[in-house]
Amino acid sequence: KRTAKHFKKIKINKIISANTKRARKTAEEIIKLLTCQVEYSSLLNEQSLGILEGKSASEYRQALKESGLPEEEFRPINGENRQDAYNRAKIFINKLKKEKAKNIIIVSHAGLISNIITLLLKMPIEENKNFKVAFCSISYFEIKKDFSIKDFFLNNITHLAKESDYYKK
Question: Cβ neighbours of residue 58 under 8 Å, at least 6 residues apart?
């Protein structure tokens, strides 16, 4: 709700959200305060862990160890590996290049947002681990017509305090 309040002050033309329950709930809070188009896309969903979805980190590490593969190559049954999720982010970025809307909010999950950041900054996939994305954080990109970056900031959570009922201006 605090993130949604932050966007009330900004002209937004469109929201593109992952179609997962958690992302949809966030997008719905923003939509309540804005009148703009919304699109849901599975391209923005977090990396699928397949049969390990909902399991503990230790269960994931055990399955990884038993596979004998490096983490970047490990793909749980019916799931994705890190490269698969990165490739989905690439597809999304290519679709975004064709987008006509000017001010777009992207609602997604930490891992996929770090992939998008890495791609927008034209960094190799290995760099995505350096972009830790907090819940309800805002990363902003001003993109030129040639899709190069004019300006950006990452992982801002200041709005969570500023939009709080407890913050006194």
Answer: none
